Amino acid sequence: MKRQDQDWKDIIEKEYTKKNILDKVHLSTHEISELGIAWVISCFVILVIIIRRDRDFLNELFAQGRIPNELFLFLFALGISFFTHELMHKFTAIKYGAKAYFKISQQGLMITLISMIIGFPILAIGAVYWWGEATSSTGIRGRVSAAGPISNLILAGLFIIIQGLGFFLIESMTELSLILITIGEVGVWLNVFLGTFNLLPIGVLDGAKVLDWNPKIWIGLIGSFIVLGLFMGGFSFYIPF
Amino acid sequence: MELHSKYLTGFFIIGALCIGYSILVPISPLFSYAYIGYTSEYLGILLTTIGVLILIIGLIFYYLLYSSERIKGFKAEYEISPDLTQFKAIPYSKNGSSVQKEEIPDKAFCSHCGKEIFKPFQCNICKQLLCGKHYLPGEHSCMEEGM
Predict the structure, then answer these.
(1) What sign does the CA torsion over A114, A120, A126, A131 have?
(2) Which of A18, A119, A161, B90 could form a disulfide with B51 if both were Cys (CB 3.0 to 4.6 A apart)?
(3) Predicted-complex ipTM score
């Protein structure tokens, strides 16, 4: 390689790194759009399953031409929990020197559509694919897969705090407090659902890799999620039909 | 752990999950009675404390995630004492003192003649990738760059 070529390479690399802000965060517009599509599909699947379970849900939502606040709050809460879950996988993988990106998988889409027909929710629309030297060790595999459920646990704590604030403000500011309570309820429920489902030790889910790495951490995580689900009502979604 | 034993443990885990599912799901509505009969202020205090506790638990889990445990098969270097009795792992760094193995790609272009070659040679002195004709230091322009 000649010296001139090396100079040109340096100049080109500098140009590319300077221009794009998303490259600094290791993201691309394509990936964000795939995340958004997966978010919309998961919203659709969960709503369809809820509507199939109680028929009055839609009538209550659009009763007498009022704005369906709960729908937007649900979209918001699911967006936050889904995006943080996937991006934490990605960023921990990048932290250990691997390359990672989120991608929608065809098989996962088929499984989610079948689960929507059956009535038992399995959200496996996409996954974070990552490769590099770090994939060879079970420790790092376990860490990268544990990062998602732990972020869900932290988000559940934040949503419970929001719910508590709503109960504090119920006398002074009733409308705001109602919004806070509903978003807290929905957020806790969604995060418990996502966390417990991803921690099941089956095949490609995160739980198997965490169990391979460190069984103590897996037991601690799933125990905290079960206690949360019992007291905050995250398991009602698992009842078939 | 061998493969068949892994499958066996998987079956055990799935059975345990089914039993747990059949116990947990019918019980879970009963826990909603824990909130009946309290004022809103009490509920607010209770929920905020529970939320803070869960936040702390989650942060402890994150601390465990990035704890300094020795990771197998990952980039780590070892420092050996002068009398060769002890050694310890140190974090990976690109210092001049440490020796690191660089992987040679399967396909490359000879930096002297420009031919595409499979399994190239690497010059020990200037670290260029070269073909069989030009890999000796006298054949290519060695020491000119890359030192």
Answers:
(1) negative
(2) A161
(3) 0.80
